[in-house]
Write a structure and sequence with these properties.
The complex is a heterotrimer of chains A (about 850), B (about 425) and C (about 200). Chain A is built from 27 helices and 36 strands. Chain A has about 850 residues and is an alpha/beta fold. In chain A, α18 packs across α19. Chain A is globular, with a radius of gyration of 28 Å. The longest helix of chain C is centred in the C-terminal third of the chain and has 22 residues. Chain C has a 4-stranded mixed beta sheet with strand order 2-1-3-4, with helices on one face. Chain C has about 200 residues and is α+β, with helices and mostly antiparallel strands. The mean pLDDT of chain C is about 95. Classes of the chains: A alpha/beta (about 850), B alpha/beta (about 425), C alpha+beta (about 200). Chains B and C meet through α7, β3, β7, β10 and α14 of B and α2, α4, α5, β4 and α8 of C. Bound molecules: flavin mononucleotide, iron/sulfur cluster and FE2/S2 (inorganic) cluster.
């Protein structure tokens, strides 16, 4: 290349090989995470061939041994300059008002290589601008350079093809079908990879100029995938989140919830009703004469300590929540609970997960493992709704040959079209279906299994070699024992299979690792059993427990909301939270906490990868980071955690358990580390501003160089993490599932991405996207009821009645009625249909 | 002159009103070639075609026998017939599909047998409403006649043929764009490598793509032998070829002409063919092979109608269309209209083609309509150079397919040949021919 | 519920079955939709998406690549006048101007009575009869203004209905029956042919 020998593997793309060798070949359409299309022709270079040197595009030429390439000859330069001139011919001169101005690859190319003045004297193409192609995305067609990045993303990566090229020649434009706007939950990615200002995001449009933005690299905590992000702000106002290309995790992609939930953090101005989930809590609050009033930190801490120490002596205290904390605060609270409040009743999950000890005991898999697996077996909810970027990664793997998906289909899933084998599973049956797949004998008739599918699934799973099970809570209205039993059986019968536990919420994995789970201690160690959240709520109702510390939003997350309200009504309640919400109606003391983008620390994603979160803005009012709240509350209760800073907490955590908290914290821009895995992190790929425009790699902020005492914490010095094993835990109990009611339907409650949680409610752009409350049924059941999509159904259960609009969905198994968690029907909370004590809930339905 | 000595290979039936019917086809020796082919080994049939040196009639002129031999062995393979005929002033396939559809169908079956493929598609230009009806009717008849379907004429060879209607896109004549259209996609030519559909074609499987006229030659070649075909014409250009003659001639039309033995002058002036220019005006220039081809001046009229002969002079026989411009024709207007065509038909993938064609078209329009500037000539040539560097023949390419480098052909030729005319446009700020 | 009429829906399903992959039927299916609705309607797009396993955006994007598909309603008769090189040299532009005046509608638009849409086309491959005019893709060989007027009058008076169907081109293209060679026969024949060829090669050596 240019007279130099360059090493490469045959088959690599010339453009990549050149870049690695330090020769940057200009490009627009090429994107390293998508198939090359060779459309822009910017990357032309001279390649020697049988007919002499010819111009070839570097973005799709595979290198071979002895290839001779010239990237900087006059001929190559003229071709590149010619292409650039053609691109600019019809491009508007509106850089000063264009959102991309200042971070625009086309602008940058033009400044460095472009013609000084235009030779184009004809009239440019004109379009009405901008047009709204979806709820979050605007399009200025005349700025488009037809690189097909967005349409390729839609078809190739997201797989939903909601936008496509329309027209031909120079009239090509990007367009959704007018009747079906661009509503993909991944739409923001197209804005980010657009190399010009053609696609812009509604929430960001005209919000800032790139040169006014500061940024940090951090981790998204909207779900447990933990996508790496660049968080940008203008002054103390968050303006934008962009995806950073992390090889093991998100490949640069984000879901729209992670990307656009910024307003939930700092869009709170003017809202001061603490019961409003859109409001931020900015001052400590204490209940006086039945009303919450502002108080000083000293007053509030003293009041909380008084309540908790009284309870500690009489009936006891518990701690619920914490899945939204950093690892450091989770660790601090786990210690406050055990050492200061002297309780084992701690649980970061709100009854919406699986038994933490059992999940830790399953042999773990990473996202990469799942993507490399010969067979992926899913027993989980719809990953696109629960863990969107995990869906993208899995989809990307499963569309390639050599990967099969065996789907235990509990309900609709975006992965369904990719399944080699799909076996419908109704509530209460997962463990029996698994048994029937593992056992070649006759399957119980009541499961109504397709014999062929069962056989094919068994053959694909074989002995579990090359199998990764993606496992999660499949139904909030089902006793988790059903899935736990199913997973344990799989682990026993397929000893070589590995498991990726798809727990959904933010840092739930990190909280469990840090000991915020009954029966576990910090660092995944088995401890004394305690009450989980649901048991605590029962104990509070029964008077067997007196007080509870709530770390986050209990009422917004628990299925049996009225049961939880009854419990809080009787209890002394201390709430630590950054957001308002209904839980605060029951609080005696509220301690305001910093939230995402306001605090430092580490978080752990579903595969056990620890990465850093970095503050970008200052928390409003008197809010504190929760590490500090834990430490001060401990002090007020007469204890001392001896950790007054995040760094201190991370040091204590890492040195006592081997959990790589401090190691990651001081290296905040790395791709993180797998907790418990000795391998050092792979080097980060260099950031190509053309691939992910808008991110400036120069301004990374971490804690700085590792200090001397971090060196002491290298894996050899620190204790090694060891998770419990299945043998430690004994066999998983078989749930006692009641017989099926022939006339009723079994209820499935599943979370959706756009729900009524704080992140969505607090962001106007997202709040508008929450779907309708509807009951989804299999066409067979709808036909039996004489209903079709849009019809009304009266649903009765546990003495409650809800009327719902129905939707036909052939991915819902027969005999199942599916509703979204948190959806509000005409007559109230749909989830209230669930029977909190039962293994499954059966409902009676009647067409209206 | 030897213009009419050669046998009629693909137009023998056209004198009959009912040339498109099975009855007429059978009465004139139809499907005899197929019976003969089925009695031969497939390789023998391919060998005859190879010996015939049948050059593809779609535009690129690649030998059919060679193309067939490149078909990658595989579980599945396809034969696809290119009947998209949209190159301006080319209308020979139109004639063949409307007037002798059985000849095409028989050719397809022979080719499929030689290639041992069991699935063939005939991609026909969507605007050929009547042609689509006739080819479909011919296929229906052929099935009934036992010439298609399972166990053709008891030979043990089976074949299904499907007619696929295009929908109005010139670029779908480019073979990889055609395959995209056949796969139900936008007609975007595919990036190369892979260079040939024979390695990776329809659905990624090995595929032979051949033109309608190429296929229509096969019955004759099988019946008369490859050697007889090769005895016609000269050099690599064997057999006869259909020439679609249009523009300023007295008798525009499609003529079957023995290759090399005749010249452009024969084609344009012989009373059996073009019969000269209206009003006996002088030929100012002619386009020898479709509008993608560089123009020739009157000094090239005596060039023989042979692929290599024309290639050596810097143009091509291409799609078999010859357009005559006489001295009443404005070169600027002609070149502008051709560029407008390319601009409208560019698929839009490649920047130089998409933007370059539009830019040149607008500049040429301006010149023709009174807004020309002297510097436009250099600008146009430089833009052409940025699309096809060096402006050589055969052209160099900055684009995915060769539509790109076809854009400069006419503009470059017009400026080279008629610079004064361009300057007159600038001077008078209008068209001197108006 | 299908948007296509029962008979066309059945034809659509037959068309899909002719191809190794459903998506391949995209263009014929769009022709069918256009035949029924007079243009590629949104409802038709949704149905084609369902039949081909694609999405409405994809179908619309694909349809819009091809000139013959109209995404907006057009007249009952689409009149095309070619102005490409051969027709240009034979007076195509003048004929187009005449057509526009005669129909009293601008190029690219539809007459007030909804009967005609006038289009300037690229070469229609009938250059022996330049300038070339088509009505619903039937070549009417109206090379002079007088001939053009006569054709328009006849169409108006309904005297061309047998020859020029409304919309589309597939109305009369009917295949008798589906594929006759099942995939397993294809596989078996290919395997047999391969073996026979190998035998012959061996014998030849
Ligand atoms: C822009 C473009 C348009 C073409 N149009 C046609 C066409 O309409 N008909 C055709 O047979 N070949 C056309 N070709 C050539 C085909 O790509 C291909 O070479 C040909 O169909 C092969 O058949 P043959 O070998 O029998 O000639 C076109 C090529 C290009 C680049
Ligand atoms: S050269 Fe033109 S027609 Fe060919 S692929 Fe490129 S843009 Fe399309
Ligand atoms: S053509 Fe290679 S980067 Fe666009």
């Amino acid at each position: 290349m240019n007279g130099r020998a360059v090493e490469a593997t045959p088959g690599e793309l010339l453009i990549d090989v050149a870049e690695r060798a330090g020769t940057y070949i200009p490009r627009f359409c090429y994107h390293p995470r998508m198939e090359p299309v060779g459309m822009c022709r910017m990357c032309l270079v001279e390649v020697e061939g049988p007919r002499g040197a010819t111009l070839q595009p570097a973005c799709y030429q595979h290198v071979n041994d002895g290839m001779v390439v010239t990237t900087d000859s006059p001929k190559a330069k003229k071709a590149q300059e010619g292409v650039l001139e053609f691109l600019l011919a019809n491009h508007p001169l509106d850089c000063p008002v264009c959102d991309k101005g200042g971070e625009c690859p086309l602008q940058d190319q033009t400044l460095t290589h472009g013609p000084g003045e235009t030779r184009f004297v004809e009239e440019k193409r004109h379009y009405v601008k901008p047009i709204e192609i979806g709820p979050l995305v605007l399009l200025d067609r005349e700025r488009c350079i037809q690189c097909a990045r967005c349409t390729r993303f839609s078809a190739e990566v997201a797989g939903d093809t909601e936008i496509a090229f329309a027209g031909r020649g120079d009239l090509i434009e990007v367009a959704p079908s007018p009747e079906h706007p661009f509503g993909s939950v991944f739409s923001g990615n197209t804005v980010q990879i657009c190399p010009v200002g053609a696609l812009t995001a509604k929430p960001y449009r005209f919000a800032a100029r790139p040169w006014d933005l500061d940024q940090v690299e951090s981790t998204c905590t909207q779900c447990a995938v933990g996508c790496r992000v660049a968080v940008q702000s203008s002054g103390n106002r968050l303006t934008r989140v962009l995806g950073v290309d992390s090889d093991p995790v998100n490949h640069g992609w984000l879901c729209d919830k992670g990307r656009f939930t910024l307003d939930a953090v700092d869009g709170h101005e003017g809202l001061d009703d603490p019961l409003d989930p859109r409001a931020r809590v900015t001052s400590p609050l204490v209940r006086r004469d039945g009303v919450l009033v502002e108080a000083s930190w000293a007053e509030a801490l003293a009041h909380a300590a008084a309540l908790l120490s009284a309870a500690r002596e009489d009936g006891g205290v518990g701690v619920v929540g914490g899945a939204a904390l950093t690892n450091e605060s989770a660790y601090a609270w786990a210690r406050v609970a055990r050492e200061v409040l002297r309780t084992e009743h701690v649980d970061a999950q709100y009854g919406d997960g699986l038994d933490a000890r059992r999940m830790l005991a399953l042999p773990g898999a990473t996202i990469d493992d799942a993507c490399g697996a010969r067979v992926v077996l899913t027993l989980c909810g719809d990953p696109r709704e629960e863990l969107p970027v995990l869906f993208l990664r899995l989809r990307g793997a499963l569309v390639r040959p050599g990967h099969d998906l065996v789907e235990l289909a509990v309900g609709p899933s975006a992965l369904h079209p990719l399944a080699t084998v799909s076996i419908p599973v109704r509530p209460g049956e997962a463990h029996r279906v698994v048994e029937a797949i593992l056992d070649a004998g006759r399957a119980p008739a009541d499961l109504a299994l397709d014999e062929d599918a069962r056989e094919r699934a068994r053959r694909l799973l074989a002995d579990g070699e090359g199998v990764v099970v993606v496992a999660g809570r499949t139904n909030l209205a089902e006793d988790p024992a059903v899935v736990e039993r199913a997973l344990t059986r799989l682990a026993e019968a397929l000893p070589r299979a590995r498991f990726l536990v798809a727990s959904r919420r933010g840092n739930v994995r990190g909280a469990i690792d840090a000991g915020l789970a009954p029966g576990l201690r910090p660092g995944r160690a088995l401890g004394t059993p305690g009450r989980d959240t649901l048991a605590q709520l029962a104990a509070l109702r029964e008077g067997a427990q007196r007080a509870v510390v709530v770390l986050g939003d209990l009422l917004g997350n628990v299925l049996d909301r009225s049961g939880a309200e009854a419990a809080l009504e009787r209890a002394d309640v201390v709430v630590v939270t950054g957001h308002g919400g209904a839980t605060l109606a029951h609080a005696d003391v509220v301690l305001p906490a910093a939230v995402q983008h306001e605090r430092a620390g580490t978080v752990t994603n579903l595969e056990g990868r620890v990465s850093a979160v970095v503050p970008k803005v200052v928390a409003p009012g008197a809010a504190w980071p929760d590490v500090a709240i834990a430490a001060e509350l401990a002090r007020a209760l007469g204890g001392d955690l001896a950790m007054d800073s995040v760094e201190g907490a991370a040091r204590a955590y890492e040195s006592s358990t081997g959990y790589p908290a401090l190691t990651v914290l001081v290296d905040a821009t790395s791709e993180g580390r797998l907790a418990g895995s000795p391998s050092a992190p792979a080097p980060r790929r260099a950031l190509d501003p053309m691939a992910f425009p808008g991110i400036r790699s120069a301004e990374w902020v971490g804690l700085g160089e590792p200090g001397g005492d971090v060196a002491e914490l290298t894996p050899s010095a620190a204790p090694t993490l060891a998770a419990p094993t299945l043998a430690d835990l004994g066999p998983a109990p078989t749930p006692a599932v009641p017989g099926r009611d022939a006339y009723g339907l079994a209820l499935r409650v599943a979370p959706r991405l756009y729900d009524h949680g704080v992140a969505v409610t607090g962001s106007p752009a997202l709040a508008a996207l929450v779907g309708p409350a509807e009951a989804r049924l299999n066409p067979g059941d709808l036909d039996r009821l004489g209903l079709d999509t849009g019809g009304r159904l009266l649903v009765r259960a546990v003495g409650r009645e809800v009327e719902l609009v129905v939707a036909r969905d052939d991915e819902v198994p027969r005999g199942v009625l599916e509703v979204a968690f948190g959806a509000l029907g005409a007559t109230g909370d749909v989830a209230a249909l669930a029977d909190p004590g039962a293994v499954i809930t059966q409902v009676k339905v009647e067409a209206r | 002159m030897a213009v009419l000595d050669a046998p009629r290979i693909v137009t023998s039936r056209l004198a009959f009103e009912d040339s498109h019917t099975l009855a007429r086809y059978l009465a004139t020796g139809g499907y005899e070639a197929l019976r003969k082919a089925l009695a031969m080994h497939p390789e023998q049939v391919a060998a005859e075609v190879d010996q015939a040196s049948l050059l593809g009639r779609g535009g690129a002129g690649f030998p059919a026998g060679r193309k067939w031999s490149m078909l990658r062995p595989s579980e599945v393979a396809y034969l696809v017939v290119n009947g998209d005929e949209s190159e301006p002033a080319t209308f020979k396939d139109h004639l063949l599909v409307e007037r002798d559809p059985h000849q095409l169908v028989e050719g397809v079956i022979i080719a499929a047998y030689a290639l041992q493929v069991n699935r063939a598609f005939i991609y026909l230009r969507g605007e050929f409403a009547l042609g689509l009806e006739r080819v479909q009717a011919a296929l229906n008849d052929a099935y009934d006649h036992g010439a298609l379907g399972r166990d053709i004429f008891g030979s043990g060879f089976s074949l299904d043929v499907v007619v696929h209607p295009g929908a109005g896109a010139y670029i779908c004549g480019e073979e990889t764009a055609l395959l995209e259209g056949l796969e139900g996609k936008r007609g975007f030519p595919r990036i190369k490598p892979p260079f040939f559909p024979a390695a990776q074609g329809l659905y990624g499987e090995p595929t032979v793509v051949n033109n309608v006229e190429t296929m229509s030659n096969l019955p004759w070649i099988v019946l008369n032998g490859g050697a007889a075909f090769a005895a016609l014409g000269a050099g690599r250009s064997t057999g006869t070829r259909l020439f679609a003659l249009a523009g300023r001639v007295n008798r525009p039309g499609v003529y079957e002409v023995e290759m090399v033995k005749n010249t452009f002058r024969d084609l344009i002036y012989d009373p059996a063919f073009g019969a000269g220019v209206p009003g006996d005006r002088p030929v100012k220039a002619f386009i020898p092979g479709g509008v993608s081809a560089p123009w020739f001046g009157p000094d090239q009229l005596d060039l023989p109608l042979g692929q290599d002969e024309v290639g050596a002079q810097g143009s091509m026989l291409g799609s078999g269309s010859v357009v005559v411009l006489d001295d009443t024709t404005c070169a600027v207007r002609a070149a502008w209209r051709i560029t407008k065509f390319f601009s409208r038909e560019s698929c839009g993938q490649c920047t130089p083609c998409r933007e370059g064609s539009g830019w040149i078209e607008r500049a040429m329009y301006r010149l023709e309509h009174g807004g020309g500037r002297a510097e436009d000539l250099d600008l146009l040539l430089d833009l052409c150079d940025n699309i096809a560097p060096g402006l050589t023949w055969p052209p160099q390419q900055t684009t995915i397919c060769v539509l790109g480098p076809s854009i400069p052909s006419s503009v470059h030729a017009a400026i080279e040949m008629f610079k004064d005319e361009f300057l007159a446009h600038v001077e008078t700020q209008g068209c001197p021919f108006d | 519920m299908s948007h296509l009429r029962v008979d066309l829906r059945q034809r659509a399903e037959e068309l899909v079955a002719l191809y190794p992959r459903p998506r391949s039927a995209m263009l014929p299916l769009l022709h069918l939709v256009q035949e029924q609705d007079g243009y590629v309607s949104p409802e038709g797009i949704d149905e084609v998406a369902e039949l081909t396993g694609t999405t409405p955006a994809d179908v619309r994007g694909t349809a819009s690549f091809y000139d013959m598909f109209h995404l907006e309603p057009v007249g009952r008769y689409v009149v095309g006048v070619c102005t490409n090189i051969a027709c240009l040299l034979a007076g195509g532009e003048e004929l187009l101007a005449h057509a526009s005046a005669r129909l009293d509608c601008a190029v690219g638009s539809t007459t007030d009575d909804g009967l005609f849409t006038l289009e300037e086309t690229e070469c229609l491959a009938d250059c022996g009869h330049a300038p070339c005019v088509t009505v619903n893709h039937r070549y009417v060989r109206a090379t002079t203004p007088e001939a053009f007027d006569a054709v328009i009058d006849e169409v108006r008076q309904g005297r061309r209905e047998h020859e020029i169907p409304d919309h589309g081109t597939l109305v009369r293209v009917r295949r008798n029956g589906g594929l006759r060679v099942p995939d397993d026969v294809v596989a078996a024949e290919r395997a047999a042919a391969k073996a026979a060829r190998a035998r012959r090669l061996e014998e030849a050596n």
